[in-house]
Specification:
With 374 residues, the chain is an alpha/beta fold. Helices cover 38% and strands 14% of the residues.
Protein backbone atom coordinates (compact mmCIF):
# COMPACT_ATOMS: atom_id res chain seq x y z
CA UNK A 1 0.00 0.00 0.00
CA UNK A 2 1.51 3.41 -0.93
CA UNK A 3 2.39 5.52 2.10
CA UNK A 4 1.48 9.17 2.40
CA UNK A 5 4.36 11.31 3.66
CA UNK A 6 3.15 13.65 6.39
CA UNK A 7 5.89 16.14 5.62
CA UNK A 8 9.00 16.47 3.50
CA UNK A 9 12.31 16.49 5.34
CA UNK A 10 15.26 16.80 2.94
CA UNK A 11 18.71 15.64 3.99
CA UNK A 12 19.90 19.24 3.71
CA UNK A 13 18.11 22.53 2.99
CA UNK A 14 20.55 25.14 1.75
CA UNK A 15 17.72 27.38 0.55
CA UNK A 16 16.57 27.77 4.16
CA UNK A 17 20.11 28.75 5.15
CA UNK A 18 20.32 31.29 2.33
CA UNK A 19 16.96 32.81 3.29
CA UNK A 20 18.34 33.39 6.79
CA UNK A 21 21.44 35.33 5.67
CA UNK A 22 20.39 36.52 2.22
CA UNK A 23 21.06 40.21 2.68
CA UNK A 24 24.64 39.73 3.92
CA UNK A 25 25.35 37.10 1.28
CA UNK A 26 24.06 39.25 -1.57
CA UNK A 27 26.05 42.23 -0.32
CA UNK A 28 29.23 40.15 -0.13
CA UNK A 29 28.78 38.84 -3.67
CA UNK A 30 28.11 42.32 -5.01
CA UNK A 31 31.15 43.67 -3.17
CA UNK A 32 33.32 41.26 -5.14
CA UNK A 33 31.53 41.90 -8.43
CA UNK A 34 31.93 45.65 -7.93
CA UNK A 35 35.63 45.28 -7.08
CA UNK A 36 36.26 43.05 -10.13
CA UNK A 37 39.00 41.42 -8.03
CA UNK A 38 38.19 37.77 -8.62
CA UNK A 39 41.47 35.99 -7.91
CA UNK A 40 43.31 36.51 -4.62
CA UNK A 41 42.98 39.86 -2.95
CA UNK A 42 41.47 40.99 0.34
CA UNK A 43 38.56 38.53 0.49
CA UNK A 44 40.85 35.50 0.24
CA UNK A 45 43.43 36.96 2.63
CA UNK A 46 40.63 37.95 5.02
CA UNK A 47 39.15 34.44 4.98
CA UNK A 48 42.59 32.88 5.55
CA UNK A 49 43.15 35.06 8.61
CA UNK A 50 39.67 34.41 9.97
CA UNK A 51 39.87 30.63 9.50
CA UNK A 52 43.36 30.56 11.05
CA UNK A 53 41.98 32.37 14.11
CA UNK A 54 38.89 30.17 14.22
CA UNK A 55 40.99 27.01 14.11
CA UNK A 56 43.57 28.23 16.61
CA UNK A 57 46.41 27.89 14.12
CA UNK A 58 48.80 30.65 13.01
CA UNK A 59 48.60 29.96 9.27
CA UNK A 60 45.82 29.08 6.86
CA UNK A 61 46.21 28.70 3.10
CA UNK A 62 43.12 28.70 0.89
CA UNK A 63 42.85 26.34 -2.07
CA UNK A 64 40.32 25.02 -4.55
CA UNK A 65 38.86 22.05 -2.62
CA UNK A 66 39.28 19.72 0.33
CA UNK A 67 40.75 17.18 -2.05
CA UNK A 68 43.40 19.68 -3.11
CA UNK A 69 44.05 20.57 0.54
CA UNK A 70 45.08 16.94 1.08
CA UNK A 71 47.05 16.72 -2.15
CA UNK A 72 48.92 19.99 -1.57
CA UNK A 73 49.76 18.92 1.99
CA UNK A 74 51.22 15.64 0.72
CA UNK A 75 53.11 17.47 -2.00
CA UNK A 76 54.46 19.96 0.55
CA UNK A 77 55.89 17.00 2.48
CA UNK A 78 57.41 15.60 -0.73
CA UNK A 79 55.35 12.43 -0.56
CA UNK A 80 56.02 10.46 -3.71
CA UNK A 81 56.87 7.05 -5.13
CA UNK A 82 58.11 4.63 -2.47
CA UNK A 83 56.32 6.46 0.36
CA UNK A 84 53.46 4.99 2.34
CA UNK A 85 50.73 7.07 3.89
CA UNK A 86 48.44 5.51 6.48
CA UNK A 87 44.77 6.44 6.57
CA UNK A 88 41.37 5.20 7.62
CA UNK A 89 39.65 2.45 5.63
CA UNK A 90 36.33 4.19 6.27
CA UNK A 91 36.26 7.67 4.78
CA UNK A 92 35.40 9.68 1.72
CA UNK A 93 37.47 8.63 -1.28
CA UNK A 94 39.66 11.75 -1.27
CA UNK A 95 41.45 10.66 1.92
CA UNK A 96 43.05 7.82 -0.07
CA UNK A 97 42.83 9.16 -3.63
CA UNK A 98 45.04 12.12 -2.73
CA UNK A 99 47.78 9.73 -1.57
CA UNK A 100 47.86 7.94 -4.91
CA UNK A 101 47.66 11.22 -6.83
CA UNK A 102 50.71 12.41 -4.88
CA UNK A 103 52.56 9.25 -5.99
CA UNK A 104 52.39 7.43 -2.65
CA UNK A 105 50.79 4.19 -1.52
CA UNK A 106 47.79 4.16 0.82
CA UNK A 107 47.90 1.84 3.81
CA UNK A 108 44.55 1.35 5.51
CA UNK A 109 43.68 1.02 9.17
CA UNK A 110 40.33 -0.38 10.31
CA UNK A 111 37.71 1.82 11.95
CA UNK A 112 36.81 2.15 15.62
CA UNK A 113 33.32 0.58 15.70
CA UNK A 114 31.92 3.32 17.95
CA UNK A 115 33.20 6.53 16.33
CA UNK A 116 33.94 5.11 12.85
CA UNK A 117 37.25 7.00 13.00
CA UNK A 118 40.61 5.34 12.52
CA UNK A 119 41.18 2.90 15.42
CA UNK A 120 44.26 4.28 17.19
CA UNK A 121 45.07 0.86 18.66
CA UNK A 122 45.66 -0.50 15.16
CA UNK A 123 47.69 2.45 13.91
CA UNK A 124 51.14 1.48 15.09
CA UNK A 125 50.99 -1.92 13.38
CA UNK A 126 50.43 -0.14 10.05
CA UNK A 127 53.61 1.96 10.32
CA UNK A 128 56.65 0.69 8.41
CA UNK A 129 60.04 2.23 7.58
CA UNK A 130 58.37 3.52 4.37
CA UNK A 131 55.64 5.46 6.20
CA UNK A 132 55.93 9.17 5.62
CA UNK A 133 52.65 10.45 7.01
CA UNK A 134 49.32 9.56 8.57
CA UNK A 135 46.09 11.10 7.33
CA UNK A 136 43.73 10.97 10.31
CA UNK A 137 40.13 11.65 9.31
CA UNK A 138 37.64 13.33 11.66
CA UNK A 139 34.56 11.60 10.30
CA UNK A 140 31.06 13.09 10.55
CA UNK A 141 32.37 16.09 12.53
CA UNK A 142 34.01 14.30 15.47
CA UNK A 143 37.76 14.28 16.00
CA UNK A 144 39.56 10.97 16.07
CA UNK A 145 41.67 10.18 19.14
CA UNK A 146 44.32 12.78 18.38
CA UNK A 147 46.27 12.15 21.59
CA UNK A 148 46.85 8.52 20.67
CA UNK A 149 47.36 9.17 16.95
CA UNK A 150 49.83 11.99 17.55
CA UNK A 151 51.78 9.89 20.07
CA UNK A 152 52.28 7.18 17.42
CA UNK A 153 53.26 9.76 14.77
CA UNK A 154 55.75 11.42 17.12
CA UNK A 155 57.23 8.09 18.21
CA UNK A 156 57.83 7.04 14.61
CA UNK A 157 58.64 10.54 13.36
CA UNK A 158 55.99 10.59 10.66
CA UNK A 159 53.91 13.61 9.70
CA UNK A 160 50.31 13.94 10.83
CA UNK A 161 47.74 15.36 8.42
CA UNK A 162 44.28 15.91 9.87
CA UNK A 163 41.56 15.38 7.29
CA UNK A 164 39.16 17.83 8.92
CA UNK A 165 37.03 18.22 5.78
CA UNK A 166 33.91 17.37 7.81
CA UNK A 167 35.06 18.87 11.08
CA UNK A 168 35.64 22.63 11.07
CA UNK A 169 35.25 23.83 14.66
CA UNK A 170 35.34 20.31 16.12
CA UNK A 171 37.62 19.95 19.14
CA UNK A 172 39.78 17.31 20.73
CA UNK A 173 40.36 18.00 24.43
CA UNK A 174 39.79 21.70 23.81
CA UNK A 175 41.98 21.96 20.70
CA UNK A 176 40.40 22.77 17.40
CA UNK A 177 40.52 20.27 14.53
CA UNK A 178 43.41 21.16 12.24
CA UNK A 179 45.59 22.65 14.99
CA UNK A 180 47.15 19.44 16.33
CA UNK A 181 48.75 17.82 13.27
CA UNK A 182 51.30 19.23 10.85
CA UNK A 183 48.41 20.15 8.56
CA UNK A 184 44.65 20.45 8.89
CA UNK A 185 42.71 20.03 5.65
CA UNK A 186 39.25 21.53 5.29
CA UNK A 187 36.56 21.36 2.61
CA UNK A 188 34.02 24.06 1.85
CA UNK A 189 31.87 21.77 -0.29
CA UNK A 190 28.31 23.15 0.06
CA UNK A 191 27.10 20.37 2.38
CA UNK A 192 29.80 21.02 4.97
CA UNK A 193 29.01 23.00 8.17
CA UNK A 194 30.89 25.86 6.49
CA UNK A 195 29.96 25.40 2.85
CA UNK A 196 30.59 27.73 -0.07
CA UNK A 197 28.56 28.43 -3.19
CA UNK A 198 30.78 25.93 -4.99
CA UNK A 199 34.03 24.14 -4.24
CA UNK A 200 36.72 25.40 -1.89
CA UNK A 201 39.29 24.26 0.64
CA UNK A 202 41.79 25.41 3.27
CA UNK A 203 44.94 24.08 4.91
CA UNK A 204 45.97 25.12 8.40
CA UNK A 205 49.47 24.71 9.78
CA UNK A 206 51.62 25.95 12.64
CA UNK A 207 54.73 25.88 10.46
CA UNK A 208 55.41 29.09 8.58
CA UNK A 209 57.86 27.53 6.13
CA UNK A 210 55.34 24.83 5.22
CA UNK A 211 52.61 27.45 4.79
CA UNK A 212 54.84 29.30 2.32
CA UNK A 213 55.48 26.07 0.45
CA UNK A 214 51.73 25.48 0.21
CA UNK A 215 51.23 28.99 -1.17
CA UNK A 216 53.84 28.31 -3.81
CA UNK A 217 52.40 24.90 -4.72
CA UNK A 218 48.88 26.26 -5.19
CA UNK A 219 50.17 28.77 -7.77
CA UNK A 220 52.35 26.64 -10.01
CA UNK A 221 55.34 27.14 -7.73
CA UNK A 222 55.83 30.64 -9.08
CA UNK A 223 57.34 33.51 -7.14
CA UNK A 224 57.75 36.06 -8.52
CA UNK A 225 55.18 35.53 -11.24
CA UNK A 226 56.51 33.43 -14.17
CA UNK A 227 59.60 32.26 -12.22
CA UNK A 228 58.91 28.67 -11.11
CA UNK A 229 60.96 27.11 -8.34
CA UNK A 230 58.55 24.18 -7.85
CA UNK A 231 56.09 22.28 -9.99
CA UNK A 232 52.79 23.07 -8.40
CA UNK A 233 49.31 23.45 -9.79
CA UNK A 234 46.49 25.95 -10.02
CA UNK A 235 44.48 25.46 -6.84
CA UNK A 236 43.27 28.90 -5.85
CA UNK A 237 40.09 29.81 -4.01
CA UNK A 238 37.93 32.37 -5.84
CA UNK A 239 37.33 35.72 -4.19
CA UNK A 240 33.58 35.14 -4.64
CA UNK A 241 33.79 31.93 -2.60
CA UNK A 242 35.93 33.62 0.02
CA UNK A 243 33.40 36.46 0.39
CA UNK A 244 30.50 34.00 0.77
CA UNK A 245 32.45 31.91 3.28
CA UNK A 246 33.38 34.97 5.37
CA UNK A 247 29.70 35.77 5.82
CA UNK A 248 28.91 32.17 6.74
CA UNK A 249 31.86 31.84 9.14
CA UNK A 250 30.20 34.44 11.37
CA UNK A 251 27.25 32.05 11.79
CA UNK A 252 29.20 28.81 12.02
CA UNK A 253 29.17 28.37 15.80
CA UNK A 254 25.46 29.13 16.00
CA UNK A 255 24.81 26.54 13.27
CA UNK A 256 27.07 23.90 14.79
CA UNK A 257 25.43 24.40 18.22
CA UNK A 258 22.01 23.97 16.63
CA UNK A 259 23.16 20.77 14.92
CA UNK A 260 24.33 19.51 18.34
CA UNK A 261 20.92 20.40 19.85
CA UNK A 262 19.20 18.54 17.02
CA UNK A 263 21.43 15.55 17.71
CA UNK A 264 20.57 15.69 21.41
CA UNK A 265 16.85 15.66 20.56
CA UNK A 266 17.29 12.67 18.23
CA UNK A 267 19.33 10.91 20.95
CA UNK A 268 16.49 11.44 23.39
CA UNK A 269 13.84 10.27 20.93
CA UNK A 270 15.87 7.14 20.11
CA UNK A 271 16.30 6.19 23.78
CA UNK A 272 15.69 2.44 24.04
CA UNK A 273 15.26 1.98 20.25
CA UNK A 274 16.73 -1.05 18.47
CA UNK A 275 19.46 0.91 16.75
CA UNK A 276 22.89 2.32 17.58
CA UNK A 277 22.89 6.08 18.11
CA UNK A 278 26.03 8.05 17.25
CA UNK A 279 28.68 7.68 19.96
CA UNK A 280 29.96 10.98 21.24
CA UNK A 281 33.41 10.80 22.76
CA UNK A 282 33.35 13.01 25.89
CA UNK A 283 36.78 14.38 24.97
CA UNK A 284 35.41 16.00 21.80
CA UNK A 285 33.30 18.88 20.64
CA UNK A 286 31.25 17.16 17.95
CA UNK A 287 29.96 19.49 15.23
CA UNK A 288 27.58 16.92 13.71
CA UNK A 289 28.27 17.41 10.05
CA UNK A 290 26.34 14.14 9.99
CA UNK A 291 24.10 12.31 12.44
CA UNK A 292 24.67 8.67 11.61
CA UNK A 293 22.66 5.72 12.89
CA UNK A 294 23.68 2.14 12.71
CA UNK A 295 21.00 -0.46 11.94
CA UNK A 296 21.23 -4.05 10.66
CA UNK A 297 18.60 -3.57 7.92
CA UNK A 298 19.94 -0.20 6.81
CA UNK A 299 18.65 -0.46 3.24
CA UNK A 300 15.16 -1.37 4.48
CA UNK A 301 15.16 1.62 6.83
CA UNK A 302 16.31 3.88 4.04
CA UNK A 303 13.46 2.77 1.76
CA UNK A 304 11.00 3.20 4.63
CA UNK A 305 12.17 6.79 5.20
CA UNK A 306 12.25 7.66 1.49
CA UNK A 307 8.60 6.56 1.24
CA UNK A 308 7.81 8.96 4.08
CA UNK A 309 9.44 11.98 2.45
CA UNK A 310 12.68 11.85 4.45
CA UNK A 311 16.09 12.33 2.83
CA UNK A 312 18.95 10.12 3.99
CA UNK A 313 22.42 9.23 2.74
CA UNK A 314 24.95 6.45 3.12
CA UNK A 315 28.40 7.72 4.03
CA UNK A 316 29.95 5.41 2.75
CA UNK A 317 28.65 2.24 1.09
CA UNK A 318 32.06 0.79 0.14
CA UNK A 319 35.12 0.97 2.41
CA UNK A 320 38.22 2.33 0.75
CA UNK A 321 40.25 -0.90 0.72
CA UNK A 322 37.49 -2.59 -1.32
CA UNK A 323 37.10 0.14 -3.94
CA UNK A 324 37.62 -1.31 -7.42
CA UNK A 325 40.41 1.15 -8.23
CA UNK A 326 42.42 -0.13 -5.25
CA UNK A 327 42.20 -3.79 -6.28
CA UNK A 328 45.92 -3.74 -7.20
CA UNK A 329 46.67 -3.14 -3.49
CA UNK A 330 45.45 -6.69 -2.90
CA UNK A 331 42.89 -6.27 -0.12
CA UNK A 332 40.11 -8.84 0.37
CA UNK A 333 36.68 -8.66 1.95
CA UNK A 334 37.18 -9.42 5.63
CA UNK A 335 40.49 -7.54 5.93
CA UNK A 336 38.88 -4.52 7.67
CA UNK A 337 35.83 -6.03 9.39
CA UNK A 338 34.76 -2.89 11.27
CA UNK A 339 34.88 -0.65 8.20
CA UNK A 340 33.02 -3.29 6.20
CA UNK A 341 30.28 -3.66 8.83
CA UNK A 342 29.94 0.13 9.05
CA UNK A 343 29.57 0.36 5.27
CA UNK A 344 26.62 -2.09 5.51
CA UNK A 345 24.89 -0.50 8.49
CA UNK A 346 25.31 3.31 8.58
CA UNK A 347 22.59 5.77 7.61
CA UNK A 348 22.76 9.56 7.92
CA UNK A 349 19.58 11.41 8.92
CA UNK A 350 18.79 15.09 8.30
CA UNK A 351 20.63 17.16 10.96
CA UNK A 352 20.96 20.61 9.37
CA UNK A 353 20.48 23.63 11.66
CA UNK A 354 17.22 24.90 10.17
CA UNK A 355 15.35 21.66 11.02
CA UNK A 356 12.40 22.22 13.30
CA UNK A 357 11.73 20.09 16.37
CA UNK A 358 8.54 18.97 14.65
CA UNK A 359 10.55 17.65 11.68
CA UNK A 360 12.99 15.88 14.00
CA UNK A 361 10.12 14.25 15.90
CA UNK A 362 8.59 13.13 12.62
CA UNK A 363 11.89 11.62 11.39
CA UNK A 364 12.48 9.87 14.72
CA UNK A 365 8.93 8.50 14.77
CA UNK A 366 9.34 7.14 11.24
CA UNK A 367 12.67 5.53 12.19
CA UNK A 368 11.15 3.89 15.25
CA UNK A 369 8.14 2.72 13.28
CA UNK A 370 10.65 0.63 11.33
CA UNK A 371 13.12 -0.41 14.03
CA UNK A 372 10.64 -0.95 16.88
CA UNK A 373 7.30 -2.01 15.33
CA UNK A 374 4.50 -2.42 17.85
C1 LIG B 1 36.65 13.25 4.80
C2 LIG B 1 36.74 14.05 3.56
N1 LIG B 1 37.95 14.30 3.02
C3 LIG B 1 38.10 15.02 1.89
C4 LIG B 1 37.01 15.55 1.24
C5 LIG B 1 37.22 16.28 -0.04
O1 LIG B 1 36.71 17.57 -0.04
P1 LIG B 1 36.23 18.25 -1.42
O2 LIG B 1 34.92 17.63 -1.78
O3 LIG B 1 36.09 19.70 -1.03
O4 LIG B 1 37.27 18.03 -2.41
C6 LIG B 1 35.74 15.34 1.75
C7 LIG B 1 34.55 15.87 1.07
O5 LIG B 1 33.47 15.36 1.15
C8 LIG B 1 35.59 14.57 2.93
O6 LIG B 1 34.39 14.32 3.46
Amino acid sequence: MPVKAQMQVPLLDLKAQYADIKQDMDQAVHRVLDSARFIGGPEVVGLEEEVARYCGCPHAVACASGTDALLLSLRALDVGPGDEVVTSAFSFFASAGAIVNAGGRPVFVDADPRTFNLDPHRLEAAITPLTKAVIAVHLYGQCCDLTAVKAVCDKHQVFLIEDAAQAIGAEWEGRRAGSVGDFGCFSFFPSKNLGGAGDGGMITTRDEALSERLRLLREHGARPKYYHSLIGTNSRLDALQAAVLRVKLRHLDRWSEKRARNAALYDQLFEGARLARPFKDPRTRHIYNQYVLRVPDRDGLRRHLTDRGIGTEIYYPVPLHLQTCFAPLGFQAGDMPQAEAAAREVLALPIYPELTDQQIRYVAACVREFTDPL
